[in-house]
Write a structure and sequence with these properties.
- It holds the Pfam family Ras.
- Keywords: Nucleotide-binding.
- GO terms for molecular function: GTP binding; GTPase activity.
- The chain is about 30% helix and about 25% strand.
- With about 180 residues, it is of the alpha/beta class.
- It has a six-stranded mixed sheet with strand order 2-3-1-4-5-6, sandwiched between helices.
- The structure holds guanosine-5'-diphosphate (GDP) and magnesium ion.
């Protein structure tokens, strides 16, 4: 059809949520530009980037990515970004228990106020920092399973599992019937 969401070309609004410093902006930069900038700037408010991927069945998925700021003073703005989002990616840092607790707060928030059919992913970033790990993989898997979420550990620094994260989300999108 003429619309953006025919059966072969999907367009989805995706929002990243999570504590400040967990690596949300670095994940987006790695996915969209293939880069990692250790001196990247703190996100103010929110930023927008898009990236299109092709799946094996030749479907294309255009991700319209809203990367939010994690700071408390922007928390009131978050619903503007997750409302109407088809996908929410909740990110924590595997070396920070606080950030994992904050992720659980975001999951509850999405369940209360997000779209009822929102697809949620739980992402443990900074998986390259194994020696500083504070959040056991099993704890995060249990949390994800309990909340019907897809779970993956990533590293924006090494690029580990970054493309896989978005590919797995793409596979879970409902396909409009043509
Ligand atoms: P945001 O506030 O969630 O957007 O976090 P940023 O993307 O700004 O990243 C915060 C800090 O964590 C920066 O200093 C990054 O260089 C660092 N960082 C982000 N991702 C990774 C990662 O996968 N591994 C490591 N070791 N550091 C990371
Ligand atoms: Mg940021």
């Amino acid at each position: 059809g003429a619309g953006a969401n025919d059966s072969k070309n999907l367009r989805v609004k995706l929002v990243l949520l999570g504590d400040s410093g967990v690596g949300k902006s670095c994940i987006v930069l790695r996915f969209v530009r293939g880069q990692f900038d250790p001196t990247s700037k703190v996100t103010v408010g929110a930023s927008f980037l898009s990236q299109t991927i092709a799946l094996q069945d030749s479907t294309t998925v255009k991700f319209e990515i809203w990367d939010t700021a994690g700071q408390e003073r922007y928390a009131a703005l978050a619903p503007l970004y997750y409302r109407g989002a088809a996908v929410a990616v909740v990110v924590y840092d595997i070396t920070s228990t606080d950030s994992f607790n904050k992720a659980q707060y975001w999951i509850k928030e999405l369940q209360k106020h997000g779209s009822p059919d929102i697809i949620m992913a739980l992402v443990g970033n900074k998986a390259d920092l194994q020696e500083n790990r504070k959040v056991p993989t099993q704890d995060a898997m249990d949390c994800a399973e309990k909340n019907g979420m897809f779970f993956i550990e990533t590293s924006a620094k090494t690029a580990d599992n970054i493309n896989q994260l978005f590919e797995e989300i793409a596979k879970r999108l409902p396909r409009p019937s043509s």
